[in-house]
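Justification of resources, computational component.

The compute hours requested in this renewal are based largely on the per-chain cost of generating structure records like the one below. Each record pairs the submitted sequence with a full C-alpha cell output. That output is archived, and it is also reused by downstream analysis tasks.
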Amino acid sequence: MNDNETYLFQLDDDLSEKDWSGPKRSICSRCERPELVCLCSHLPPTPIHLDHTSVVVFQHPNEVKRPLGTVQLLCKCLDSSSLNVIRARQFPRKYYSDLYSNPNTYLLFPDANAVLLDDIIKESNHYTIIALDGTWNEAMGIYHRHSELQELKTCYVKIDQKSEFLIRTQPTKETASTLETIAYALRSTEKDKPTLFDEIVRPLKRMVELQLYLGAVVHDAKLSLIENGQTRRQYSKKHERWLMKLQH
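The structure output for this chain reads:
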C-alpha cells in the first residue's frame, strides 16, 4: 500500500509521501492496509483458485494513487493464476495477442452489443474475462483508444443490489465497483463455488464500514444527483444520456 494514502482515512489522490507530516503507521503485511483498519479477518483464508475463469484487469496507472481502489482487495481474494492485473496506458495486440485472439475472451463492458454473461456461459468450460479499472472516464478512454478492445465480444452482468462501495460516486444506481462487477461475473462462470461472491465482496464491505466510522460519507449515484439538480456543475443532456446507457 502506498504511503500517499491518508492517515486513518483518505486524503487527496495526488498527495505524495513527502507532503505528509503525520505519524508513520504500521502496515499489515498481508492486506497491506494500516493495522488500525486491517482487513485480514474478512479476507478468504487463502487466495481462491478459479476453475473456469481467468480474470485480466487492464488498469489505468492513476489507480496506484488511489488507496481505496477495489482491485487491490481483489488481488487478496484470488490467486495469481486466476487474476492478472496489468497497469498501463496502452494494451496493444502485439503484447497481448493470446488474449485478443482467444474466442472465449469477453470484455466486461456495457456497450450496445453486450450480451448478458449468464446467456453465454454454456458455450465453453473456460472463459477469459477482461475488465477495465479506473474512473469511468479513464475506462472509457482506454476502450476508445484501442480498436482491439472494441473488436472483442462484450458482456455485462446484472447488478441486483446497490453497490457496497458507498464512499465513491458511482455513475448510476445500477453500476458497481470493479471488484463487485467481477464478483458478479464469477457468480455466473464459477457456479460450483456458491460462496465465492460473498467471499470477494466481504472485505470491501468491511473496508467501507471502517471508512464510514472514521469520517467518510456516503455518495449518491451521479445520475441521481443530476436528475435531482444536486450537482455543483451543469451537465448536458448528452452526458445524462451517456450515463443512462450504462444501465442494462
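The CA atoms of residues 70 and 179 lie 5 Å apart. Residues 1-20 have pLDDT under 50 and may be disordered.
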